[in-house]
Amino acid sequence: xxxxxxxxxxxxxxxxxxxxxxxxxxxxxxxxxxxxxxxxxxxxxxxxxxxxxxxxxxxxxxxxxxxxxxxxxxxxxxxxxxxxxxxxxxxxxxxxxxxxxxxxxxxxxxxxxxxxxxxxxxxxxxxxxxxxxxxxxxxxxxxxxxxxxxxxxxxxxxxxxxxxxxxxxxxxxxxxxxxxxxxxxxxxxxxxxxxxxxxxxxxxxxxxxxxxxxxxxxxxxxxxxxxxxxxxxxxxxxxxxxxxxxxxxxxxxxxxxxxxxxxxxxxxxxxxxxxxxxxxxxxxxxxxxxxxxxxxxxxxxxxxxxxxxxxxxxxxxxxxxxxxxxxxxxxxxxxxxxxxxxxxxxxxxxxxxxxxxxxxxxxxxxxxxxxxxxxxxxxxxxxxxxxxxxxxxxxxxxxxxxxxxxxxxxxxxxxxx
Amino acid sequence: xxxxxxxxxxxxxxxxxxxxxxxxxxxxxxxxxxxxxxxxxxxxxxxxxxxxxxxxxxxxxxxxxxxxxxxxxxxxxxxxxxxxxxxxxxxxxxxxxxxxxxxxxxxxxxxxxxxxxxxxxxxxxxxxxxxxxxxxxxxxxxxxxxxxxxxxxxxxxxxxxxxxxxxxxxxxxxxxxx
Lengths: 417, 178
Known about the structure:
heterodimer, A: mainly alpha, about 5% strand, B: about 180 residues, alpha+beta, Alpha-Beta Plaits, 2 domains, 4-stranded antiparallel sheet, 5 helices, about 45% helix
């Protein structure tokens, strides 16, 4: 075992990582522009919403991961928390991007010809944000949407996005700052502060994240509702977020950074990924099962459209990628300790949860006109590049890749399971 | 011929005990087992103890639980007495998921616990097998089977050199049969 680690190791953001992330961003932006220019506007907007939501969720997962490590007073993770901290520091920008995309989608309108009528609808959230839906005198008055307008209105929607995301960003910033202060000051003051911050964050987060998911994603099909949806999204956010954290750590290790981490730390991350993939399946199935059992038309309409030929294959592939593959590939102890196996499962799950969000969003926005084109690939590349660039920039700003005065640091360096 | 069955080296420090294990291994003296009042990381690897097979038991019990409840519900609700519940087919897979899942977990949990108790001889009415009572308190004990060809003197000296605070030559394996 290597016993001498440099506590002054810093990450230098240069070379191929920088080139490739910027190249992906540039190519992605061009592809998204092509998507808009070739008339696939609704499809492109949906993909931008998908990826900006994914982007925000991965950054939130960084804050969430930090918070529950502090609340559990976990020792094993002390030497790897710089990575989720870098995620947390990107959250303000990610939130801004999400709000921009949502605004663009809400305030650009197009004419939709359906059932012999022509309506002017926004590209995103047409189910509740279309003008006239809540006006009893209007031709397109919708009583159900009017009944929900206390929640589904622009003021509440923006208030929710701004307040929630600002709160999550603040806690991410405060937890990172406390850790940086700890490096210079030492002592237990900052650790105790982080503990209090993390407890507060988790309480606020637990109550607000489902509402955030209801507003941002579930309201795309505003006639439908599911109380499981918030937990379903929480599970998806957590699995995909920890998969990205693990992937970043594995790639950093392959580049020669973070030599103090061993297969024991990866084993623990693998356990979280495995366990929460099962949890994701549990809530996914719970949502499906309740709807299937009750068989009430207003609820089953959601799965009805996902059962049509355009979506059925992807609907099933979602389960294969996000449940069966981690179940079979990560079950044994040895599998979680194989770096390459874990890396490929992470990549699979990142793609899998992209598909998961795709299945949540597309039937509500582009309905049966599902296509796969420039917009899908472009938005994934653009946001992947943007995230990598911003996250690695933040990571390079830390004075050390290890929180050298973390009270549990020794426990983490000698972690053995 | 001495009638010593086991030689115990009692240490008051886990690091010294680990050192003692190394010393015995270097001299090719087989160690019977090591008893400590608390878990010590890395000791399994050092002693070359095989991985636990409890996982296989868990898998078998899980499969048993799943097939037991699946058969019961299939027999009662599909084969023997089909009922129309909400117009659903009698053999609808989503129905079968929750209880199959629950029984898999139930059987796995109970099965693992029982397997563990059986394997470690921990069940009611069974006197615990202890070589020295202080292994449950403040002593770290290396037990060496005295039946080997190594002279008992050499084992005693090696343990003493490693820092054992007390060496015991026990005539019987366990102290707590009574």
